[in-house]
Write a structure and sequence with these properties.
Blueprint: E1 8-15, H1 21-31, H2 54-63, E2 69-74, E3 77-82, H3 91-98, E4 103-109, H4 116-127, E5 132-137, H5 146-156, E6 161-163, E7 165-168, E8 176-179, E9 184-187, E10 201-202, H6 209-214, H7 216-232, H8 238-242, E11 247-251, H9 260-270, E12 277-278, E13 283-284, E14 292-300, E15 309-317, E16 320-321, E17 326-328, E18 333-335, E19 341-342, E20 349-350, E21 353-354, E22 359-363, E23 373-375, E24 392-398, H10 404-416, E25 421-425, E26 431-435, H11 439-452, E27 456-461, E28 465-470, H12 474-484, E29 488-490, E30 496-500, H13 503-512, E31 517-519
Parallel strand pairs: 1-3, 1-4, 4-5, 5-11, 6-11
Antiparallel strand pairs: 2-3, 7-8, 8-9, 9-10, 12-13, 14-15, 14-23, 15-22, 16-21, 17-18, 17-23, 19-20, 24-26, 24-27, 25-26, 25-29, 28-30, 28-31, 29-30
Bound molecules: guanosine-5',3'-tetraphosphate.
Length: 524
């Protein structure tokens, strides 16, 4: 058996909806033998155009629990691919999932280039120095010039890039990709299943074979472009990639399964082993003997027939074992898990043990909260699950004062699951819910009613951002709090937040209170 520490790779694919994340996921699973037929993943996906009907989305989300983590084996490695919801109203889920991975693959549509959602997600990865690879997809269609795209990636995503594969033409003229990592050209045949024996490979670029197969003009262009690449882009250094300083870029067409194998083969060679994680107390290394892990996602099934809640735990160190008591640090409580499961082959399966890099799903009756640490007894608090400023805000109105207790409990639990964020106004104690998308407001209302018997409605509130504030200067902070009380609130952890009505208001406040720091996320 290979050493479990060196045989795990845990990553996520991120993209703007429609760039091809699901298609790429599916091709990777096919390579790993985790699924046998195309379409298996697709049917589980939250349909992006579907709807703003959250019940429909919930139904699909229910199905997709099993595919939240898709583990597959490839070339002696166990690869954990963490799914991130495509629907942008669930962006916060995606941010949190990114805290549980060791690297990411960014998919970009060749015609659309870098889109907004990609920018946001990459920013989250960059903040944590997560190593990233870029896959430029849909080369079978007309799109932007490859050099222009590399520039765009560098500028918009603020990533230094170096191509490891290079396209020969695109759209109708797409003929293949030159693999700079392995120094060979693979020729493209639309809709064929790329496999080693079927793909025509040309190893020597100076041979006449190149002209024979791709034509004189394309051969000349390819040689010239490769020459330009050598002079413009630095040679690829694995260490720079692992430190998050440079991103290798690949080109291909996921739907045609072209260029995907190049990406995967390179990924298994260069992507990081399970990485250490920082806690408030110390750095925790995967090779430590004792188990530790953190909860990065909680999935509650809102279908009343299957009212189960599953906490997703990333194993950071040691070995997780079934039926062994573990310590839930926040509650200072020991818990045992008789049915933890893993996700091999896109199925839920009960597991007896799990290793660093693995994700285990734990049935939960309401004990867990996003960000919780679980250990063999040591008081560790894993860092790095920040809350980001919501985009939409509303006051909560209690429709049934007789059910106030239920309402408060319901809201508290839903916030623990990470459905939305709660802020309590400093001046009048009113509750404000902040979300990334409008959908969550319906989810909360529905769940409060069906799970807690409470009823709420909302009052619109026009806010630009929530900013977490702090200052090393206690007097300045005190003055700020006194003067701005009506715009201040506390978040779920009691941290002080300034609610900015507009970018302009925020700028004014920043100018008037230069000693106060304003941040769009809760943890640095
Ligand atoms: P997402 O998860 O990032 O949202 O994207 P998804 O994989 O669903 O892909 C979005 C659309 O782009 C799909 O078409 C998919 O077939 C198509 N696509 C993916 N890769 C390629 C590619 O390499 N070339 C081309 N030409 N298209 C690609 P759709 O019409 O939305 O869905 P479907 O009806 O094909 O399933």
């Amino acid at each position: 058996m290979p050493d479990p520490l060196q045989s795990r790779r845990t990553f996520a694919i991120i993209s703007h909806p429609d760039a091809g994340k699901t298609t790429l996921t599916e091709k990777l699973l096919l390579f790993g033998g985790a699924i046998q037929v195309a379409g298996a993943v697709k049917s589980n996906k939250i349909k992006k155009h579907a709807t703003s009907d959250f019940m429909e989305i919930e139904k699909q989300r229910g199905i997709s629990v099993a595919t939240s983590v898709m583990a597959f084996e490839y070339k002696g490695l166990l690869i954990n691919l963490l799914d991130t919801p495509g629907h942008q109203d669930f962006a916060e889920d995606t941010y949190r999932t990114l805290t549980a991975v060791d690297s990411a693959v960014v998919v970009i549509d060749v015609a659309k280039g870098v889109e907004t959602q990609t920018e946001k997600l990459v920013e989250v990865c960059r903040m944590r120095q997560t190593p990233m690879m870029v896959f430029i997809n849909k080369l079978d269609r007309e799109g932007k010039d490859a050099f222009d795209l590399l520039d765009e990636v560098e500028q918009k995503l603020k990533l230094k890039v170096t191509p490891l594969s290079w396209p020969v033409g695109m759209g109708q003229r797409f003929q293949g990709v030159y693999n700079l990592f392995e120094k060979k050209l693979c020729l493209f045949k639309p809709h064929h299943k790329q496999g080693e024996d079927e793909t025509l490979v040309i190893e020597k670029l100076d041979s006449k074979d190149l002209e024979t197969h791709i034509g004189t003009a394309a051969a000349k262009t390819l040689r010239e472009e490769l020459h330009t690449l050598m002079t413009v882009y630095p040679p690829f250094e694995v260490k720079e990639y692992l430190d998050g300083h440079i991103c290798p870029v690949f080109f291909g067409s996921a739907v045609n399964n072209f260029g995907v194998k190049e990406l995967l083969d390179c990924f298994v060679q260069i992507s990081p082993d399970p990485l250490p994680r920082q806690t408030e107390e110390r750095l925790v290394h995967p090779e430590e003997k004792k188990f530790s892990g953190f909860v990065f996602k909680i999935h509650a099934n809102i279908d009343p027939r299957h009212r189960d809640r599953i906490a997703f735990v990333r194993v950071v160190s040691g070995k997780f074992e079934r039926n062994k008591p573990y310590h839930l640090v926040r509650q200072d409580k020991d818990l045992k898990f008789s049915n933890p499961y893993s996700f091999l082959a896109a199925k839920k399966e009960v597991v007896d043990e799990a290793f660093p890099g693995d994700i285990v799903g734990l049935y939960d009756s309401g004990n867990f909260k996003i960000g919780d640490s679980i250990t063999e007894g040591e008081d560790l608090h894993f860092k790095g699950i920040p809350a980001f400023s919501p985009e939409q805000f509303r006051y909560v109105i209690n429709n049934n004062p007789l059910k106030t207790k239920q309402l408060n409990k319901g809201i508290e639990q839903l916030m623990d699951e990470g459905v939305a964020q709660l802020f309590i106004k400093e001046d009048n104690g009113r509750k404000i819910i902040g979300t990334v998308g409008a959908l969550q407001f319906d989810v909360i209302q529905y769940r409060l009613e069906h799970e807690y018997g409470a009823s709420c409605s909302y009052e619109p509130l026009s806010l630009h951002k929530a900013c977490w504030v702090k200052s090393p200067d206690a007097a300045a902070l005190k003055e700020f709090i006194t003067r701005r009380k009506k715009d201040l609130a506390l978040d779920k952890d009691g941290k002080l937040v300034y609610l900015a009505e507009s970018p302009w208001a925020l700028r004014m406040v920043q100018e008037n209170h230069p000693k106060i720091e304003f941040r769009f996320k809760s943890e640095e």
